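From the shared-data thread, chain only:
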Amino acid sequence: VQLVESGGALVQPGGSLRLSCTASGFTFSYSFMTWVRQGPGQGLEWVSTIDPSGSTTSLADSVKGRFTVSRDNAKNTLYLQLNSLRTDDTAMYYCARGGKLTYTSYERGHGTQVTVSS
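Structure, as tokens:
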């Protein structure tokens, strides 16, 4: 199993980014997928989960209305669109196999760094 995140960058407050996670080694199209993040000196924070078909998504209250999760099963790729970024969105962002309550039991990628700063 391999999960590879990309798309992180240094961005100014109010900016946007799109993160990607390319998956291999398991049946991506059958799997719930989750984004989590870890800010400086903080624990893991659940951000978003999407069901296998992509038709049902859930987002943490802290990012609702600003972030959007999506997937392309033909490309085995998970996305996280980050809009209206704030300084407290600064974190390492990870994708993980599984849902909100199960992702800790599965593999996680190495992460991509998002830094929001002026």
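The chain is about 0% helix and 45% strand.
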